[in-house]
Amino acid sequence: MTSFVSTVESFRQGAFTLPAHYYTSADLFTREQEYLLDTQWWCVGRSERIGEPGAYFLQKLGIESVIVLRDRKGTLRAFYNVCRHRGTRICSTPEGRFGETIQCPYHAWTYATDGRLIGAPHMQEVEGFDKADFPLKPVALHEWEGFLFINLGRDPRPFGEVFAPLLGRFARFNLPALRTDRRIEYEVRSNWKLIFQNYSECLHCPVIHPELSSLMPYTSGANDLVDGLALGGYMLISEPNRSMTMTGRACGLPLGELSPDDMRRAYYYTIFPNLMLSIHPDYVVYYMLWPEAVGRTRVVCDWMFHPSSFGRPDFNPDDAIEFWNVTNRQDWHITEQSFAGISSRAYEPGPYSPRESVPAAWDRAFLEVFEHSD
Length: 374
What we know:
Layout: H1 4-11, H2 21-24, H3 26-39, E1 42-46, E2 55-61, E3 64-70, E4 76-80, E5 95-97, E6 101-103, E7 110-112, E8 117-119, E9 140-144, E10 147-151, H4 159-162, E11 179-188, H5 192-199, H6 205-208, H7 210-213, E12 222-225, E13 230-236, E14 265-271, E15 275-279, E16 284-293, E17 296-305, H8 317-342, H9 357-369
Antiparallel strand pairs: 1-10, 2-3, 2-5, 3-4, 6-7, 7-8, 9-10, 11-17, 12-13, 13-14, 14-15, 15-16, 16-17
Helix pairs in contact: 1-9, 5-8, 5-9
């Protein structure tokens, strides 16, 4: 099997698409995902999902199950869903709220919500046993702009170091205060990298997205993050439209105190390895990608709005949700067709155009992540 490293130099400039095995090799997919799970910060959703002390949800990463929770003092935490007694999964309900403690259903080992072991039946009879030696095993957790990220690495690089260009960049959009209105999950029969690459360019928009192209010229805007693990920029909403909706009208209140320029722009970013973030003047839609097989990806899509929009007579979230549900399905179909074509013996890497500079940059970032994977 071709190693990751041997192909990095050939494609560092991003002039050509990646060879087929990066998208179609099941062995490479397994190795790729193991490495990503060991090293990268994965977005697992929003802190509003666990807004109250004791609230939790389970997140599956590969074979691992992680409990993401807010402890009784309000601190966000993440732990492996593994009892320190005999390794049993502690939680099986996908989300809920703990009382004062977390208890394993097998032998009733009991933990505080901060992970400390506080109850272990009959272990007082074991000489030298100390409950302090057996807390739940923690998982690195970071909150950024209301988004939660976890990292399974033993000693991960700090989120703020990895994603320094993101810090403070979106403060004007009031992201931590936004509330989720809707979630749609999609099963896409394509490799996860093709979904990222498709999101990163709009050269395909006039052909694939008639609804989007009527609101936003594909040649408009500019990219402001062009290197590294976070990439993207803005596009212009054409007059007289006010947002990316089925009607072209705003569907909610502005997200914050936005400048005239921001009221005419939509911002689109990829945040490696599983978040795609779309910011509009009146709402945000974000996508979490969960690769399930070499040719199968689950995409979880949430729409968020200013909290004061809810309950207003002019609040029309369906206008945005329908717009992107239509657009998303167009994207998923074409990425499935792309995966099918790349799987052909006739495929060979093709040249990127200048309008595809961000997908080329995404390829470079992807390859650089694996320089030390062998």
